[in-house]
């Protein structure tokens, strides 16, 4: 044993079967003896060893099915094969249902779980050889897929490198095959490796084991935690835990470092399909190890389970993900003939005008390109000439600093001239911009930036402060000048002014900008609002961003000479691409309801704008503050020819009220999402015409140019299981296809799969919204798929019932919540009252009766709240998932607090 381990670790004991444990079928348990080898025919001596493992072979035989291959699962430290119980169970469920049958073999490594206690230290090379000896004894034949976790991930990958004739794919959870020289090993391991603590923390006490169990997300049930403890009762059974920790190759001098290097090199040479699954909340296997694995396996599919941590197979649905992935890549144990190791990440896109084309065309113009209303000292106007020059200078400066095509640059800058110049400079040199707005909140923004793993951060002071305090990755560039102490504290290497000056010098010396990126190269990672779960990074290629620009120009006739007031950040950033003169109004971008009517009028005047784009929450406050408008303000708003509002449903009443402020404007409400900004469009007349229809939901109009809309019908369980259709009156998930639909989600293989499942179109996307098409080809949105209520009477989509309830006297907004088991859920209506109630509670009998009569569905309870919870970004979408949790709690006796 290495220094620091107590002698008690040298205890020996044979392998034994485990006691009855939750989730573990005794039929899976096997004891296998690997005979001794004397070494006379080559190789080292090897004593006889006894192993415990879990194996579904006998269960598959009882089902009468032959496996298509074997899934070889290897646990890490301090777990055991119990970690893979869901994988064994899922494999048998799929086989019993007629799916492909995979044999699962989950081993207990020597000195771990219920395998033999050898009393000897096992290095990494020993463990890889030991596993090979066991699979030889099992006469394991191909095809084999490896699945590992923690240091078992390294061991399984080492086995894969040594058995290329058997391995057809590799999969792994949080693990690492390389420790960079310029980064220390994670703090928890540094602490455990201290000589004075190693033995006490890992062997004499169960501290290391208990710490591992305590970081499960969610917390493990007591019986499950006890099952993990079962093989490690007493110090004599925990020697392997300490030995495993002691064997971590902390530096090049460690005895196991050469074997780790060998495995790392071998992994980079693997050309079989690969899947990397990750729990981002892991305090040991940090995301730098994921980056390293992804770099070594560039063809690998990656899925990050947001909210999950180190004990990933317990924290998330690893089993379902693995078997879905195997079904796609190895349907019968082998890759389909002619298949590549992975499916392409992006659809082919034809060459298109680069996003910065209008900047090049207008670079000699002194006409305004941008107007920044909230600039210090008053509105600031930036000409096309200045903007084009500044973009070139920043692009050249970034390239000179070492920013390369494909590098990720997180932009933590509020909308305005600096953000626009930096964004176009990055896109010009092929860097991938990461845009996650402050509307996500600090927690959501942290999750987004860390998940995107930027190489660089360009930010203003608030963003840089958050990056430093919360440990966001990336080298830092400040948009403002900072004193030296602040630069050091924030780890700022450069300022944007320095970068621009550097670029100007390089251009003056005759340096050329890098070659323009290809149309199918990634250009941006834009984060969703997070209104239906953790915000997802949406990857767009250059061609797809160009297609977004072209779709907007075609649909709304926006182009050179158009003045655009953009109260919605994506459209502010697209203004220069359209050649439009754009202005960002004076407002808090994290709170759209701060936009006032006077601020809009000032913006229209400053940019001589004829097009206004506002979120519904912003539009509502503009209408509410209209009394402050002067005659000049109203005259300015009278020059607007088009206003748009999108991001959440917009009522006819709100559009009509806005039209009174902009009487010469055509009012439109486009339907789209971060994954596709313009899918359908409807004007006020269309909304009014739809109001006379008996269709359920909100009419969002007809598909925009080059957009196809289809429906995946819902079954009785609320799932979109039917084939895609364009038949009218069929309710289901809305599926869109267009050249400007996003490329993929970033490191979210499972979401990518779900969003394209059954679409059969590389440009297609399952939106997660539910609705239907009518006989005129108009699309009606009825809610989100995850908010569909499955009652005993049938499926209930929420929007129609909410609209009918909102027509009741005394009701403001309404939200539908489903509580109870799927298939027998009860509908609960949660309403804001007019005037507003001061605290949440049960509705009065009269209001309850009126709501029930209007709803059109059976309502179990009616609750009132002062304000319905909404999403962070838009301040408009009712958070129905939160409502459901709250309603279930209060109706089961919980405290009547605000949702």
What proportion strand?
15-25%
Number of domains: 4
Proportion in helices = 25-40%
Model regions low in confidence, pLDDT < 50 over at least 5 residues: 340-351
Mean pLDDT equals: 91
Give the class-level CATH name of the largest domain.
Alpha Beta
Counting DSSP H or I runs of 4 or more residues, the number of helices is: 31
Q: What does the main sheet amount to?
A: 8 strands, mixed
CATH topology of the largest domain: Rossmann fold
The CATH H-level superfamily of the largest domain is: Alpha/Beta hydrolase fold, catalytic domain
Spatial gap, N to C terminus: 56 Å
Structural class, please?
Answer: alpha/beta
Count of beta strands: 36
Shape: globular
CATH-scheme architecture of the largest domain: 3-Layer(aba) Sandwich
Order of strands across the biggest sheet? 1-2-4-3-5-6-7-8
Radius of gyration: 30 Å
Can you walk through the features of this model?
By secondary structure, the chain is an alpha/beta fold. It has four domains: 49-329, Rossmann fold, CATH 3.40.50.1820; 357-584, Rossmann fold, CATH 3.40.50; 670-785, Roll (Luciferase, domain 3); 788-891, ANL, C-terminal domain (GMP Synthetase, Chain A, domain 3). Helix 26 (652-661) links the parallel strand 21 (642-645) and strand 22. It has an eight-stranded mixed sheet with strand order 1-2-4-3-5-6-7-8, with helices on both faces. Strands 15-14-13-11-12-16-17-28 form an eight-stranded mixed sheet, with helices on both faces. Strands 10-9-19-18-20-21-22 form a seven-stranded mixed sheet, sandwiched between helices.
């Amino acid at each position: 044993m290495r220094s620091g381990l107590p002698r008690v670790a040298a205890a020996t004991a044979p392998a034994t079967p485990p006691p009855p444990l939750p989730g573990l079928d005794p039929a899976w348990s096997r004891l296998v003896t690997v005979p001794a080898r004397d070494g006379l025919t080559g190789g080292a001596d090897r004593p006889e060893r006894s192993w415990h493992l879990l194996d579904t072979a006998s269960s598959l035989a009882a089902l009468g099915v032959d496996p298509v291959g074997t899934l070889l699962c290897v646990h890490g430290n301090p777990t055991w094969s119990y970690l893979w119980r869901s994988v064994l169970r899922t494999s048998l469920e799929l086989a019993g249902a007629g799916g492909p049958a995979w044999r699962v073999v989950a081993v207990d490594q020597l000195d771990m779980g219920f395998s033999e206690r050898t009393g000897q230290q096992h290095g990494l090379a020993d463990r890889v050889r030991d596993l090979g000896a066991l699979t030889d004894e099992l006469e394991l034949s191909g095809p084999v897929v490896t699945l590992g976790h923690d240091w078992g991930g390294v061991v399984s990958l080492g086995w894969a490198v040594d058995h290329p004739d058997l391995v057809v794919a590799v999969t792994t959870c949080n693990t690492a095959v390389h420790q960079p020289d310029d980064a220390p090993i994670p703090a928890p391991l540094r602490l455990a490796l201290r000589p004075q603590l190693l033995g006490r923390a890992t062997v004499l006490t169960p501290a290391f084991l208990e710490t591992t169990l305590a970081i499960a997300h969610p917390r493990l049930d007591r019986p499950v935690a006890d099952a993990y403890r079962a093989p490690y009762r007493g110090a004599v059974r925990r020697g392997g835990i300490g030995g495993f920790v002691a064997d971590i190759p902390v530096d090049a001098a460690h005895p196991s470092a050469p074997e780790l290097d060998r495995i790392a090199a071998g992994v980079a040479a693997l050309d079989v399909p690969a899947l990397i699954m990750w729990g981002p909340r892991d305090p040991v296997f940090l995301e730098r190890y994921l980056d390293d694995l992804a770099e070594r396996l560039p063809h690998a599919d990656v899925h990050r389970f947001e909210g999950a941590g180190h004990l990933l197979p317990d924290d998330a649905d690893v089993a379902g993900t693995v078997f879905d992935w195997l079904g796609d890549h190895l349907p019968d144990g082998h890759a389909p003939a002619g298949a590549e190791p992975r499916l392409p990440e992006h659809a082919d896109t034809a060459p298109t005008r680069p996003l910065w084309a209008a900047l090049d065309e207008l670079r000699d113009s002194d006409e305004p390109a941008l107007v920044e209303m909230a600039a210090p000292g008053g509105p600031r106007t930036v000409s096309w000439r200045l903007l084009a020059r500044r973009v070139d200078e920043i692009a050249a400066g970034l390239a000179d600093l070492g920013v390369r095509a494909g590098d990720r640059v997180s932009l933590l800058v509020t909308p305005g001239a600096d953000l626009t110049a930096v964004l176009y400079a990055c896109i010009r040199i092929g860097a991938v911009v990461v845009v996650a707005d402050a509307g996500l909140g600090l927690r959501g923004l942290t999750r987004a930036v860390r998940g995107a793993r930027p190489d660089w951060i360009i930010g203003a002071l608030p963003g840089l402060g958050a990056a430093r305090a919360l440990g966001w990755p990336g080298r830092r560039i400040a948009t403002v000048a900072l004193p030296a102490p602040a630069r050091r504290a924030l780890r700022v290497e450069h300022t944007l002014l320095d970068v621009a000056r550097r670029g100007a010098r390089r251009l003056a010396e005759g340096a050329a900008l890098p070659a323009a990126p290809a149309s199918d190269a990634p250009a941006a990672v834009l984060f969703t609002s997070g209104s239906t779960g953790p915000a997802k990074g949406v990857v767009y290629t250059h061609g797809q961003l160009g297609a977004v620009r072209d779709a907007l120009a075609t649909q709304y006739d926006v182009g050179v000479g158009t003045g655009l007031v953009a109260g919605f950040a994506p459209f502010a950033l697209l203004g220069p691409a359209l050649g439009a003169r754009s202005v960002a109004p004076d407002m808090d971008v994290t709170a759209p309801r701060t936009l006032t009517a006077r601020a809009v009028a000032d913006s229209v005047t400053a940019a001589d704008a004829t097009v206004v784009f506002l979120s519904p929450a912003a539009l509502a406050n503009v209408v509410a503050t209209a009394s402050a408008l002067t005659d000049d303000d109203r005259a300015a708003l009278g020059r607007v020819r088009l206003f748009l509002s999108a991001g959440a449903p917009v009522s006819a009443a709100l559009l009509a009220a806005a039209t009174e402020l902009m009487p010469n404007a055509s009012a439109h409400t486009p339907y789209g999402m971060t994954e596709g900004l313009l899918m359908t469009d409807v004007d006020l007349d269309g909304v009014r015409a739809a109001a006379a229809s008996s269709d359920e939901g909100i009419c969002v109009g007809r598909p925009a140019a080059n957009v196809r809309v289809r429906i995946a019908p819902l079954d009785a369980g609320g799932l979109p299981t039917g084939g895609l259709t364009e038949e009218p009156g069929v309710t289901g998930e809305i599926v869109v296809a267009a050249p400007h639909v996003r490329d993929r989600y970033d490191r979210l293989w499972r979401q990518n799969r779900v969003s394209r499942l059954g679409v059969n179109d590389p440009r297609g996307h399952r939106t997660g919204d539910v609705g239907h098409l009518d006989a005129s080809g108009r699309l009606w949105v009825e809610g989100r798929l995850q908010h569909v209520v499955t009652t005993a009477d049938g499926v209930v989509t929420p929007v129609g019932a909410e609209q009918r309830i909102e027509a009741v006297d005394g009701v403001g907004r309404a939200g539908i919540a489903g509580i109870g088991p799927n298939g027998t859920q009860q509908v609960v209506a949660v309403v804001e009252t007019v005037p507003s109630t001061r605290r949440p509670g049960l509705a009065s009998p009269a209001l309850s009766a009126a709501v029930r009569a209007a709803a059109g569905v059976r309502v179990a309870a009616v609750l009132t709240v002062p304000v319905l919870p909404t999403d962070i970004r838009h301040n408009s979408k009712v958070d129905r998932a939160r409502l459901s949790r709250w309603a279930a709690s209060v109706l089961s006796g919980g405290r009547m607090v605000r949702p």
